[in-house]
């Protein structure tokens, strides 16, 4: 698989979101199946794996996903880029710890969970409005100097927040919601990141599965499946958003690819610093997504696709600005 740069880190042009092995898409697979899927992804050329301290729910617990990923990648840890995220909760601000102490405590637990002595990319999972982002940036800069992390990032932020942070400690990557059906990042965040050599890591690049064409009005989301809260995936909006599926079908047939692969190929063509991290708990889907790197759009195909997309109205919108206590859903944070 081809590589691209996010900040100072070289990664496979398609990464892997690992959340689904712990929660978020209904019943999680077994640990053995999850570890095998991660290894298969590595064999297929993926060198960029994304997790978070908070991924783990119901029968699992905070840190479950990190522990799973750490176990899966241990034998090839030095050959990959490992990203994880922390939350800073308000109840942590009521004691005598400094912000550095709080962040370092979270980091130490993540290092233990991931069976490593450094993190390549350490994100603030959501902005805490009670902590200036500049203060977080200063702490991240110290952690970089001390060798605990190689780079740092922010998730679900606007360009104003990003700019404040970047002026204190250069940001390596922004992990925001971005896909054909959520394109807010194209207005300001992606251009800013391109100008300042910041990577954009796109989560839910297949629109929580919608852009695969496999989600219909008859699809039932069970248990903790996050898609029951995705605005575009209400039954009404699934019906209204079918024109984009019809468009993808045209290109999928022409390129002998899947709809999901076309949506990823579009993203890779459009921006040199955007790296999608599709998430799935299904090994077949994971490998299908990674193989999107083999689907190459011509200039003419991309331009026609882009023109058609601009003429399609999308129903349902989540946006990219989220913070602690004001999130997409109380039940889920990607």
From TrEMBL:
Protein name per the record: Aldo/keto reductase
PANTHER family with a match to the protein in the record: AFLATOXIN B1 ALDEHYDE REDUCTASE (PTHR43625), ALDO-KETO REDUCTASE (PTHR43625:SF77)
A matching Pfam family: Aldo_ket_red
Keyword Repeat belongs to the record: no
SUPFAM superfamilies noted in UniProt: NAD(P)-linked oxidoreductase (SSF51430)
GO cellular component, one term: cytoplasm
GO molecular function: oxidoreductase activity
Gene3D superfamilies per UniProt: NADP-dependent oxidoreductase domain (3.20.20.100)
Limits of the NADP-dependent oxidoreductase domain: 13-308
Annotated keywords: Oxidoreductase
Statement: the UniProt record of this protein carries the keyword Protein transport: no
Tree of life domain: Bacteria
